[in-house]
Amino acid sequence: YKLVTSLEALEKILSRSLKTQQVAISLMIAEGNALGSELIGLALAWEGERGCHYFPLGQVSKSSPPQLSGRSAVKLLAPLLADPHVNKVIHNSKRAWINFKRLNIELSGIRFDPMLAAYVLDPGKRVQDLEAIAKEYLNKSLSSYDDLVGTGRYRRALADLPVERLLAYAGDQAVYSLQLATALEEKIKAANQTKLFRDIEIPLVRVLARMEMKGVKIDAERLKNLDRDFSARLEEMVEKIFDLAGESFNINSPQKLGLILFDKLALPLGKKTKTGYSTSMNVLTSLAPYHTLPREVLNYRSLAKLKNTYVDTLPRMVNRDTGRVHTSYNQTGTVTGRLSSSEPNLQNIPVRTEEGREIRRAFVADPGHMLISADYSQIELRILGHYSKDEALIDAFQKGEDVHLSTAAEIFEVEPHEVSAEMRRQAKTINFGIIYGMSAFRLAKDLGIPQKKGRQIIERYFDRYRGVRSYMEETPKLARKQGFVTTLLNRKRFLPDLKSRNHNVRQFAERTAINTPIQGSAADIIKLAMIRIDAELERKSLPARMIMQVHDELVFEVEASSARDVATLVQHEM
């Protein structure tokens, strides 16, 4: 690997590279939030004799060779990076896109990302670091990032390391990214997943990067008021719990709570573990019919979690430069293809509770702008209709009927106008529960009815939706035979546990086989919609940006004068 320390040498390398068709890029970025990270250096690797070059851009140790002027070097590199006709191979390309954008370079021509390729081939392996992917597919042992910077008290900043070590590490990352592009592309092609990789996962990188950089504005004052409200309510809950328990105790201690529930109140279902009684959410839910205390503890935990996770935390996560909160969307964080969100997680704010809705109201638009929220209606049930070819389910959707009401009328054997709100609620639980392989026991538990009644309801459901029964019976059989299930766009999930000798493990794998094609197809559809909407907003130069994705929901910030036009476009593209 060659170290490049002069602008003249950089210019010569780039002039020879003007006709290159493909280059691998590895960035050395100071630790911290991607929006505020410093680019320490980067390596470029070409196939063939031109090899790999490393360009040190940051201030490193005094004993290091001279450094390139970061600003001048980036200016020279910009045409290559922005050229859509030069294919780029980059591990974790979203992070690279964001860091180049901070330098006013729009990275174009991203063709291959080993991290996304490994994820598409087998989402269950969770091999995200380049060294893990190189070991898996090339049988090469590379140094890890921790090997480079150290751990714990011995950890050092990249800028403090000798440039030779950065050269070796960044060079390996670039060179082996290039080798992985060749190896993994063949595997993706053989698995018939080229369209999924090329048309969804790779284009989505830019969409997510732009969303992360735009961020979300929050109303700090509203959250401050919510904090006071939640704190007062938590204090009231604590007093109520102490009254019910007959004494004060540490509610957040599972051991103390277990002693109150099972030793003092002598409630049933108490199971001791090595550390004491279990007081998980499932245990407390099971105990709720026997005593008010478990239900109050559940309410307390729910509100305390919302306060700690969002009300207290979001204001501290506002970026000082942008005045907005910037989450990270992870493309490789789930086995179903769904996106996940972290730091902060904006996808777990409950929409069904008033407290959750209050938190969501703290997400606001800039002055003169509006938020538009668009979500798919019962997308997973529609996909279930497609997969199962169930005539009754398809007919209900095509006629625009309320599917939950239709299900309720059928299983409770009443006319549609006789369906009560409670019947519809139970039917909704059944409709969505079926997708997750809900048992009669679980249904009875969720609805608070005898298990026998739960079994009867499920039997009536399958009498109504025979195609769904067939899908649920045949899908695990096919999955066991081929070893995996697929989505509509051929996203695969391998399920070796279908052949497990353990009954519970095997049953869970069967439920997973039923659910994954549905949930995974929903994930593919929303990703495709995001790519199309982002392209159309840009093509039409509309003053709107996609700022959030919450599973089946997309949120946009738009100038108020263009809100109707954007809403129409979003609905059409979705």
Account of the 3D structure:
A six-stranded mixed beta sheet has the order 1-4-3-2-5-6. It has a three-stranded antiparallel beta sheet with strand order 13-17-16. A two-stranded antiparallel sheet has the order 7-12. It is built from 22 helices and 17 strands. 36% of the residues are buried. It has helices at residues 7-16, 70-82, 93-102, 114-121, 130-138, 145-149, 163-190, 194-214, 220-245, 254-264, 281-287, 292-311, 354-360, 379-388, 391-398, 403-411, 421-435, 440-447, 451-464, 466-482, 503-539, 563-573, and strands at residues 2-3, 22-29, 39-45, 52-56, 87-90, 110-112, 217-218, 272-273, 276-277, 328-330, 340-342, 363-364, 369-375, 484-486, 492-494, 544-550, 553-559. The two termini are 47 Å apart. The model has no long low-confidence stretch (mean pLDDT 91). With 574 residues, the protein is α+β, with helices and mostly antiparallel strands. Helix 3 (93-102) packs parallel to helix 8 and helix 8 packs across helix 21.
